[in-house]
Amino acid sequence: MPSTVPSSPDRRLLDDDLLAAVRSRAAGYDRDNAWFAEDMADLTAAGYLGALVPESFGGAGLGLRETTREQARLAGAAPATALAVNMHHVWTGVARYLHERGDSSLDWLLEEAGRGEVFGFGYSEPGNDLVLLGSRTEARPDGAGGYTFHGRKIFTSNSPGWTRLGILGLDAVSDDGPHLVHAFVTRSGGGFEILDDWDTLGMRASQSRTTLLDGAHAPAERVVRRLPVGPSTDPLVLAIFTSFEILLASVYTGIAQRALELAVEAAHRRTSLKHDGRSLAQDPDIRWRVAAAGIALDGIVPQIDRLARDVDDLVDHGSGWFRSAAGLKVRATETARDVVDQAVRVSGGSTYFASSELGRLSRDVLAGIFHPSDAESAHSTVATSLLGPVE
Questions:
Q1: Of 246, 257, 299, the residue nearest 75 (C-alpha)
Q2: What pTM was computed for the model?
Q3: Which fold has domain 16-117?
């Protein structure tokens, strides 16, 4: 079945002036450990938070393929801003994924996103390496089909900005046995505390603070799924996994693309006494490093494009999505780290100063290690796909 949203890589919501303004603020946000308030205002005004929302719901109607390209461009200007906005895009991407496959359970999310609500992603927990397959957060039934949530969520990006928070908890008390509860709470509904604890090496403007849930309430109409604990190919789980991994890969690829641009500029700018004052762009070792970075990066971009296009075109990979998307995320984030490292070596000692954009990128790109799926989880997923489960 063809996608209901035509995908064209040429449609853009982020013009060059907007990206230039975003880039001009990134260093200040990083220095001050400040949330990207002005960026958020500009992106909202440009309609960017509605990128994946269909036009019929008041959005821009871009496909996932187009949005990954926009996210890479935004990440090249301001990685932390792109990462935080990414979590909103994940949810609108999930809702769009379900809607296009005949599941209307998150149509309300598309409607609210089209009206300007901002969605956060509150799934990560300390010590929970099961991610979507388990939870340390208590989901307590309210007796009317809803739940209150009690627990600690970490890396809640865009903490100052979300108005709706998607959360996962464990209902361990209902008569039908333990179930994972996927639901949404509102900022105005209370029952939570956001800690001012985000003081990190990189991705500082994302303000991905810890969220303490202590009675945050999701009424029955905002409970999206109750699923058995453990592996699942429920469409919601597939939608979350694919949207999260593909969009995340695009952010880190955008960082790598910008790092390569800076490496090329540095190679032409820097000169060498050893080579009679000629630019380092003529040095064979520097040329090799730049080429190695370019070769690595050239292999990632079409992979993102292909998987995003498959989502847009409603291709059904079934459980194969877990292998494909997890592998993409690991390849993209590891490649981005390698590209940034080569760029730093090409650019020299000036990168070590706090004022260096490339130095900031070298800190931001490290965060890719910590997002799910991490390397261990991805290897386990692929090993199971190839060899079967461990007996």
A1: 257
A2: 0.95
A3: Butyryl-Coa Dehydrogenase, subunit A; domain 1 (1.10.540)
d(CA 157, CA 166): 12
Strand 271-272 and strand 278-279: pairing?
Answer: antiparallel
Tokens read off for 385: 């796909």
Tell me: pLDDT of 3 over 80.
no
Distance CA 241, CA 377 (A): 13
What are 169's strand-pairing partners?
181
Q: Are strands 119-122 and 164-171 parallel, antiparallel or unpaired?
A: parallel
98-156 residue pLDDT tens: 999 999 999 999 999 999 999 999 999 999 988 999 999 999 999 999 999 999 999 99
**Cβ-based neighbour number of residue 183 at 10 Å:** 25
Q: Which pLDDT score, from 0 to 100, does residue 10 have?
A: 67
Architecture per CATH, domain 120-228, reads as Beta Barrel (2.40)
DSSP 296-336: HHHHHHHHHHHHHHHHHTT---TTHHHHHHHHHHHHHHHHH
Give the separation between CA 160 and CA 196, rounded to whole angstroms.
10
The amino acid at 179: H
The fold of 235-387 is Butyryl-CoA Dehydrogenase, subunit A; domain 3 (1.20.140)
Domain definitions of the chain by residue range: 16-117, 120-228, 235-387
Instruction: Dig out the tokens for 280 from the structure.
Output: 């380092």
